[in-house]
Each structure stands twice: as C-alpha cells, then as structure tokens.
From TrEMBL:
CDD domains assigned: HTH_XRE
SMART domains: HTH_XRE
Record bears the keyword Coiled coil: yes
TM ranges: none
Origin superkingdom: Bacteria
Domain called HTH cro/C1-type: residue spans: 10-71
Protein name: HTH cro/C1-type domain-containing protein
Coiled-coil zones: 92-119
Keyword Metal-binding in record: no
Keyword terms: Coiled coil
Length: 162
C-alpha cells in the first residue's frame, strides 16, 4: 500500500469516526479548496479510483485533524515500522546464530561424554580383571597405567610394548 493509499484509508476512517457523510466532506472541501468537490469525488477517492493530489491531501488532513500525508508524522511512522521490522529480523538472525553455537557446543559435549564413557568402560575392564584374579600381575603401560583387555592404554592410547 502506498503512502497516498494509506492516507486516503486513514482519512476515510476518520470521516466515518467523525460521523461526516461523503456529501458533507465534499461541501467542506469545496469551501477550503479552489476546486469543487462532489460526493462522487469523495467516493472515487476513497475507493482508490481517483488519485489524491498533494494540495487536496493537505487540505483533507487539516479538515479531518490528521497528520500531513507526505513526510511528517506518516513518514516517521512508516520509518519506525520499518525499523521495528528490521530489528525483529536482526534479533531472529542473532537467535539463529546463538542456536547454531549452542548446537555445536552440544555436539562437542556429546563427543566428550562418549570418550569419557569409553575410558570408563576400559577402566572397569581392568578393575574387573584385577578383582577376578587377585594377586595376578596386571599388565601396565610405560606411563604406569593398567592396560585394557585389548592391550592398549586408556590413559595415553599407546599400545603396550611387551
């Protein structure tokens, strides 16, 4: 919707709110304007069948107590609406970026948990072997850590040199 179309709609709403008929508005516009306005002029303008000139819109705004149609309050209102929409989009973009960051952090945390679960499983295996055979020598790595059943060190991930 153009600024002119928005203004005409606001003017029509205001006319109805004030209880003015199209004929009464046409009479008042004729009093203020060098041009003659008729009820049909108002009807065609409100229906969008007739464009409104800047001087007519200015008089109509004055007559109905509206903000000037071009520039002024209406332009500021449209600029504010555009700014609000832009800020809303930026906030959505920032939230999407943050969601992506958190999703990545979650994936890294899941990998760490999986690695820790594997290490814990190896430790349990070593402990279970030591408990099952008390007094038996438990093979150890060069770093001094007990080896898991497949002969690898859960601590430094080296294979034992036997």
């Amino acid at each position: 919707m153009t600024i002119a179309e928005e203004f005409v709609q606001r003017a029509k709403d205001r006319r109805v709110q004030l209880g003015l008929s199209q004929s009464e508005l046409a009479r008042r516009m004729t009093e203020l304007s060098p041009a003659t306005w008729h009820q049909m002029t108002v009807a065609r303008t409100e229906a969008g069948e007739r464009p409104i000139r800047l001087d007519e819109a200015t008089l109509l705004a004055e007559l109905l107590g509206l903000a000037p149609p071009f520039g002024g309050a209406l332009a500021a209102e449209r600029a504010a609406d555009a700014l609000i929409a832009d800020l809303r989009d930026q906030m959505c973009d920032r939230h999407q970026e943050r969601i992506a960051e958190l999703t990545s952090e979650l994936a890294r945390a899941r990998i760490r948990i999986r690695d820790q679960e594997r290490a814990l499983k190896k430790i349990r295996g070593v402990v279970d072997r030591a408990v099952a055979r008390p007094g038996a020598d438990v093979p150890t790595c060069q770093c001094g850590t007990a080896l898991d059943p497949d002969g690898t060190c859960w601590n430094c991930t080296r294979e034992a040199s036997t």
